[in-house]
Design goal:
The protein has helices spanning 4-7, 11-29, 36-43, 47-54, 57-78, 85-102, 104-111, 121-139, 147-166, 176-189, 205-217, 227-242. With 248 residues, it is mainly alpha-helical.
Length: 248
């Protein structure tokens, strides 16, 4: 029963209460159980409160996804302190796989409900964090292709691997599959270290040089260029990085 006190709650506390109620239902019984009526009953609020606060069910699910992915994104951001940018990519992959398998309901909420042209905010933040990591690989001169393409390749491979593993019975899952895909992706994207001491290689080939220059320039380095010039430079460098044989 909805109490008078609950029905009069407003502001962030009520918003959080509804998000947590929806999250509980999601983790207990999957997305099918997260109806606005069920969420309202679990939170002890009138159903119209959900639409007033979140706009619609999609708005509520966006915030549930943000809630579920928050700790993962914080842990991923902490990886940026690593010295070897390619090892950071490996660590990020392992973290992503672990999160997806430990929290399949949240993962399926973001990546399992495909709608053309629409990506949940949590998914966009995951991709943006990955792009930052790959930019560091580019700055070290070890990227074989453009930052954008590398981000798409690694993100797509990671999502596909997790969804495949989630769909398998736990007793037949083989996590060596994820490790094998990780190494294939890393070897496709990144150049090996240059010396016997394991130090990063200098920019190698057209792709490595183009992406190293782009990463070194950043926003400040192109301030002297017009908008049109910056756009053209970006197009040229990405095209050079993605040209066949550019990473050799």
């Amino acid at each position: 029963m909805i109490t008078e006190t609950a029905s009069k709650q407003t502001g962030p506390a009520l918003r959080q209460k509804i998000v947590l109620a929806a999250a509980d239902l999601l983790e207990e019984a999957g997305l099918e159980a997260v109806s606005t009526r069920a969420v309202a009953a679990r939170a002890g609020v009138p159903t119209p409160s959900i639409f007033r606060i979140f706009g619609d069910k999609d708005g509520l699910l966006e915030e549930v996804a943000e809630h579920g992915f928050r700790r993962y994104l914080e842990a991923k951001a902490g990886l940026l302190t690593g010295d070897d940018p390619v090892q950071v990519l490996r660590d990020a992959w392992d973290l992503h796989i672990r999160f997806g398998l430990e929290h399949p309901a949240y993962y399926a909420l973001v990546y399992g409900q495909v709608r053309p042209g629409r990506v949940p905010h949590a998914g966009l933040r995951v991709a943006a964090g990955l792009r930052d990591m790959i930019t560091r690989v580019a700055a070290a001169g070890r990227l074989r292709m453009s930052v954008e393409r590398a981000t798409e390749v690694m993100h797509s491979a990671g999502v596909g691997t997790i969804l495949t593993l989630i769909g398998l019975p736990e007793d037949v899952r083989d996590l060596r599959t994820a490790d094998a895909v990780r190494e294939m992706v890393i070897n496709t994207l990144a150049l090996p270290p240059g010396g016997d001491d394991g130090a990063p290689a200098p920019a190698s080939g057209v792709a490595g040089s183009a992406m190293a220059l782009l990463a070194a320039l950043g926003q400040d380095g192109t301030a002297a260029l017009s908008v049109g010039e910056r756009t053209l430079l970006l197009e040229w460098l990405n095209r050079l990085a993605d040209a066949p044989g550019g990473g050799d």
